[in-house]
Structures are given as structure tokens and as C-alpha cells.
Task: structure prediction
Amino acid sequence: MGQAKEEALELIRRLPDDVTTSTIMEELFFKQQVEQGLEDVAAGRVMTHEELKERMARWRKSTGR
Result:
């Protein structure tokens, strides 16, 4: 069995028996997003706190906030 499938099954096994399909999907999506973030960090795809603040300020201005 592939590693990704085995990890997904293990995640599902740790959830309570009365878990909903929606919650399972949310947990799998969260796991995928965390893994992607860690890959981004390892590859140097990061920004400083100042860069993020500037980007958020531009976004807020563009939405009229």
C-alpha cells in the first residue's frame, strides 16, 4: 500500500467512531496543507513578517477595508 494511503487510513483510524465524512475530509485537507507548507519552507518559499504585513495591507486596501 502506498505511503499516502496508509497515512490517510491511520489518520481516519484515530478519529472517533461517530466522525462525519465532512470532518474526515477537513482533517485530510488540513494534513495536506500542513505538508505543503513544510515543503514550501524546506524549498525556501517563505516570506518575512514584514513582507506578509505589506501584502496584507495591500490586500485590505484593494478590498476597501
Remarks:
- The longest helix spans residues 21-42.
- The chain has three helices and no strands.
